[in-house]
Amino acid sequence: MSEVSASVAMTGETDRALRTHLLRADGQEDVCLVTYRRSQGSRRCSALLREMVMPGPGERSVHGNASFTGEYVMRAVDVARSAECGLALVHSHPGGSGWQRMSQPDADAERSYAYLVAQLTGLPMIGLTLAGRDAHWSARHWSSDGVASWAENVRVIGSSLRTSWNDDIRPAPRAEPSQMRTISGWGEGMQKDVARLRVLVVGLGSVGLEVALRLAATGVETIGLMDFDTVETKNLDRLIGASAVDVWLGRSKLDVARRLVTDAATASAPRIELHDVSICEPAGLAAALDYDLIFSCVDRPWARAVLNTVAYSDLIPVIDGGIHIDAFPDGGMRSATWRSHVVRPGRPCLSCNGQLDPSSVALDREGLLDDPAYIAAADPTLEPARQNVAALSVSVVASLLSQFVSFVVAPGGEGDPGPLQYVLSTHSLEVLDRHSRDHCAFEQGEAVGDKRLMVVGRHREAEDARAYQRWSARRPEVRLGRALDHGALVVRAALVRLARAREVKRDSEEDLARAGAGL
Amino acid sequence: MTAPIAGVDGFISGLREWGIEATVRHGVVTFVVAAIDGAFAGRPVEVGVSVDELGAWPAVPPHWVHLPSDVGFVRSNTQASEVPGWVKHSRGTTAWGDAAHPPQAYVAHLRAVVGEAA
Question: Does some domain include residue A171?
Fold first, then answer.
């Protein structure tokens, strides 16, 4: 958890504009300067591209290696400084494909401006290269003393998530025999892309836990799990895999999820990252900024407001959804609906989509939505809906994961479908006609990075939950129970390792046998 | 896309654009609005919102409306205000999020709140 990495992200709109400028009809290299904002996570620093500063007449030459004048750089620096931004130097390799390395002239040109740009903007200069043959991006962050740190990826957030990978820093994982059926569905190349994504699941209730399990089974190597809650008896109908033992031992949802997700993982070296925090806390937000994509499996307004902010301010797409059970007051079910949507630039935010009431965020932040006295005196309809049905929560999971596949894999070239709603009573799937509002403050904060709205703060519910878990862990019966349970888990983990080793050995033997038989 | 000035500074500068001067005291942004009807119709009324509630302004509006204790309501969910002699009232906005000028929309909300005062 200690390494520091770098990345770059841009919207599909910025990507299109840059490609239009940089990939010339005459096949020459071209160059452009772009402002960016920093998005600093706990381990990763991302540069979010914002405004293109186009070269004026005489400010650059495009014959052979593109070159540019100092006046152009200084003009762009002024634009960047006035917008409290850093500056990125972008150029194209029209005949290139894949992650581009720098030629000596490229490196010299970028290094020569790194110190100046860092001094004048206060932020490191970013270098980007666009490969003309496959629109692959590559990037590096320059220190002021002229040392380049390569980015782990460059992400384009459009109708689909297009990620250019640096194979040296994020090597493609080996395809595993247990992933054979999945790979046959979308190909080995796509599997390499999907498996390398850093995906965070916020909220490990019935939906979040199942989403995390499916991601692990798919072969996603790095999965972040975030929750501060403890398993309770009322959760057991939906937390499949959790048991009365977990309730008795005061286990956190995070611990249960780690156990189950580790078991379900098909990657050879899965990395399950645990975040015992709330997304509403500064530490939760910082952790979230290290990921490429987030699943929002929370239903509270404050948490959803934070995620809604991050989707635009930090260009981290958020896949969100939920279920509403329409129950008669005297018992019985009228209907149920579940929704799913990808929250990202170009799609309506949760507030515009009718899935977040901004005016309820302040109440949630103060814990008043859990205060019966406040609700009784204010408005009984404020009480959060508690209904859920174990048999239906998996439908929300399916809907979220379908959005994930559409957004990441883009079957048939189509990206995410927009907001979807399934109505149980009529068994109809609707594409909801929702649009961004003209003055939405969430969406207007696109790519502002660390200048985002200050929506996080102290979360007393999370603090209380962690305090309870610490207290619970000190009780003698819990300590004894956990020790026994841990022993059983160690034995099981050893069995799993043994089984996997036998599987690898058997596959090798079968390969040898086939080779011997000339098959 | 240009982000609006956010947070408490954005709130105060937004009010100023509409001719309303605000000051911060005891962690509360206070200013004066004119009631348009009700018991205080035609009279200026001091109002306030907590600085702590303005971190995500204008995406997230403040909930609590701070008022001098002589401005009361027939029914209200209240807590003590940080401003001595004031009370804060639970008064949520509705349909928030599409105002071209959020301070104007929020002042309209406050004027409606004050208009209900007894």
Answer: no
CB contact burial A417-448 (16+ within 10 A = b; e otherwise): bbbbbbebeeeeeeeeebebbebbbbbbbbbb
Tell me the three-class secondary structure of A150-186, residue by residue: ECCEEEEECCCEEEEECCCCCCCCCCCHHHHHHHHHH
**Domain housing A280:** 192-473
Residues β-bridged to residue A136: A131
Question: Which residues of chain B make contact with A367, given a CB cutoff of 8 A?
Answer: none
> Which residues, listed in sequence order, are joined to residue B78 by a DSSP beta bridge?
B89
10-residue stretch averages of pLDDT, chain B, 118 residues long: 73 94 96 90 93 94 95 87 94 88 94 89
Closest CB from A439, A442, A457 relative to B99 = A439
Say yes or no: A412 and A496 in one domain: no
pLDDT tens, residue by residue, A437-482: 999 999 999 999 999 998 999 999 999 999 999 998 899 999 999 9
Where in A394-505 does DSSP place strands (E)? 420-423, 428-431
Out of A46-55, A217-226, B35-44, least confident range = B35-44
| Residue A468 and residue A489 in one domain | no
Strands A5-11, A153-157: pairing is parallel
Position of tokens 């634009």? A79
Question: Is A180 part of any domain?
Answer: no
> Among A49, A60, A61, A58, which residue's Cα sits nearest to residue A18?
A49
Phi, psi torsion values for A131, nearest 5 degrees: -85, 125
CA-CA distance, A109 to A90, in Å (whole number)? 11
A14 touches chain B (CB under 8 A): no
Residue B85 lies in a domain: yes
Query: Is B77–A443 a contact, with Cβ atoms under 8 angstroms apart?
Result: no
- Report the domain count for chain A: 3
Percent of chain A with pLDDT over 70: 97
| pLDDT score for A507 | 73
Number of domains in chain B: 1
Looking at the fold, whether A332 and A453 belong to one and the same domain comes out as yes
Q: Could you tell me if residue B29 is inside a domain? A: yes
In chain A, residues with a C-beta closer than 8 Å to the C-beta of B100 are: 438-439
Contact A174, A30 (CB under 8 A): no
Could you give the ipTM of this predicted complex? 0.90
- Please say whether the beta carbons of A399 and A430 come within 8 A: no
DSSP for A225-268 reads EE---B--GGGTTTSBTB-HHHHHTT-BHHHHHHHHHHHH--SS
Q: What is the pLDDT of residues A267-320, one digit of tens each?
A: 999 999 999 999 999 999 999 999 999 999 999 999 999 999 999 999 999 999
* A312: contact with B, CB 8 A cutoff: no
Task: Output the average pLDDT for chain A.
Answer: 92
pLDDT 10s digits, A325-361: 888 888 888 899 999 999 999 999 999 999 999 999 9
Of residues A139, A135, A137, the one with CA closest to residue A151:
A139
Q: What is the largest CA-CA distance in chain B?
A: 44
Q: Which is it for strands A420-423 and A333-343: parallel, antiparallel or unpaired? A: antiparallel
Does residue B38 lie in a domain region?
A: yes
Q: What is the DSSP pairing of strand B78-80 with strand B86-90?
A: antiparallel
Lookup result for tokens 């004026």: A56
Which residues in chain A have Cβ-Cβ distances shorter than 8 Å to B102?
A: 439, 441
Give B50's strand partners.
B28
CA distance A366 to A215: 34
